[in-house]
């Protein structure tokens, strides 16, 4: 079985002392990967034997396993506390589209929005295509790495559902529900990609996860866990693509934005009713500049699409302010993906990129006429390209965006606080 298909059960026996503290640190590194199920078993003396700690072991009862000096016991307590509190948030739950999908669509029959073939994942460990729409990791992976105790995004919900032996061992640290092609509106993606998991359905799946967490922890502990967890949502691009492709003549852009705002508000309120309180929202990037759009514009950005992306950021800002004022305990961070990336697209050389027009992997004009496949034209220096395929950025761009979301200080980039500040609340 491949690494992603088999669960490794690891148990660390912790009696105490420097050797065991080193073993605990090694176990922590193993536990960063979602296919490792880590159990820490700490051995403590009974109350009748606590007086043995720190005295000569040779003269004590024979069935005592070991004696730990008081100073070592104090050091053990510090290390164990750090181990349990190492993550800035106890769990991270991810919702959205292909910018956050880490393999959901691999499990959708008939779905045309997939990335589980070469050359996707060429820069991922072992050059493995995982379902990420990237040459390697995506933005969510890098955000989670900085905020949680994982090395990459939590596993997809559908992966866990198809591997039930992993389900409850993973959900306490988070789940990824994002589906490539999905949008805010329920029908978004269904016409272009046939089968995607809508944002509404993703939230229903989260409800299932909550019920399972409640079975493990009880109601009170579950509410505490969920209130302190983080909910990252990156969605909206496909709603704009669908509007331009299918509905441009059917209704106005103003009507679209109003519909998106109302529907998005309903989604957030549903998550709130399920216990979510900390929301990390990523806005729509410059979708008018992706190679797939440039194919139809002669190589320039489609400003109508970009203007809609910027307008929706304004609508989302107002939405979140209203949501916060009407929902007790809500905190949020809104990342302006448009502002983060448009300067690179407009001035690639000054930001260390050589190409912000063409896809690194694809076919036809600007490598933007179809998805990346084993038969595609592939660039050799991925770090020089802004776009990986016809719609998505390279791993390096994802890394830069994640850093801006987590550490950004400019209110034009992330407001009113950044993701790290949100996590620490």
UniProtKB/TrEMBL annotation:
It comes from the Eukaryota. InterPro entries: GDSL, GDSL_Est/Lipase, SGNH_hydro_sf, SGNH_plant_lipase-like. Signal peptide: none annotated. Gene3D superfamilies: SGNH hydrolase. Keywords: Hydrolase, Lipid degradation, Lipid metabolism. GO terms for molecular function: hydrolase activity. GO terms for biological process: lipid catabolic process. Coiled coil: none annotated. PANTHER family: GDSL LIPASE/ACYLHYDROLASE FAMILY PROTEIN (AFU_ORTHOLOGUE AFUA_4G14700) (PTHR45648), ZINC FINGER PROTEIN (PTHR45648:SF101). Belongs to the 'GDSL' lipolytic enzyme family. This is GDSL esterase/lipase. It comes from Cinchona calisaya.
């Amino acid at each position: 079985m491949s690494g992603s298909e088999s669960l490794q059960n690891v148990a660390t026996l912790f009696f105490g002392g420097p050797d065991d503290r080193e073993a605990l640190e090694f176990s922590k590194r193993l536990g960063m990967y979602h296919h490792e199920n880590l159990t820490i078993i700490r051995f403590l003396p009974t109350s009748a034997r606590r007086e043995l700690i720190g005295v000569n072991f040779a003269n004590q009862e024979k069935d005592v396993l070991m004696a730990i000096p008081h100073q070592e016991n104090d050091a053990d307590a510090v290390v164990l506390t750090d181990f349990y509190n190492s993550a800035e948030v106890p769990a991270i739950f991810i919702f959205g589209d292909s910018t956050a999908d880490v393999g959901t669509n691999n499990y959708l029959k008939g779905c045309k929005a997939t990335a589980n073939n070469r050359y996707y994942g060429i820069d991922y460990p072992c050059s493995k295509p995982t379902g990420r729409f990237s040459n390697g990791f995506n933005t969510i992976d890098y955000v989670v790495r900085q905020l949680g105790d994982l090395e990459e995004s939590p596993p997809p919900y559908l992966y866990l559902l198809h591997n039930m032996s992993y389900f409850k061992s993973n959900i306490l640290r988070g789940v990824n529900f994002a589906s490539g092609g999905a949008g805010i509106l329920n029908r978004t993606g269904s016409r272009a990609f046939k089968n995607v998991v809508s944002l509404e359905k993703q939230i229903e799946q989260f409800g299932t996860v909550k019920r399972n967490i409640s079975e493990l922890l009880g109601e009170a502990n579950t509410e505490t866990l969920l209130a302190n967890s983080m909910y990252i949502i990156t969605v909206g691009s496909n709603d704009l693509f669908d509007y331009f492709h299918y509905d441009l003549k059917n209704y106005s852009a103003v009507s679209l934005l109003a519909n998106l705002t109302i529907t998005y508000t309903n989604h957030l309120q549903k998550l709130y009713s399920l216990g979510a309180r900390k929301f990390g929202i990523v806005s729509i990037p410059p979708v008018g500049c992706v190679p797939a759009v440039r194919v139809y514009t002669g190589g320039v950005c489609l400003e109508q699409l970009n203007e809609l992306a910027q307008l929706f950021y304004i609508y989302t800002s107002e939405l979140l302010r209203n949501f916060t004022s009407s929902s007790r305990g809500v905190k949020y961070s809104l990342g302006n993906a448009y502002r983060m990336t448009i300067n690179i697209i407009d001035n690639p050389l000054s930001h260390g990129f050589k190409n912000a027009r063409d896809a690194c992997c694809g076919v036809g004009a600007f490598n933007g006429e179809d998805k990346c496949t084993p038969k595609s034209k592939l660039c050799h220096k991925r770090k020089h390209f802004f776009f990986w395929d016809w719609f998505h950025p390279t791993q390096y761009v994802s890394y830069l965006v994640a850093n801006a979301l987590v550490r950004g200080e400019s209110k034009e980039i992330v407001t009113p606080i950044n993701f790290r500040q949100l996590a620490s609340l």
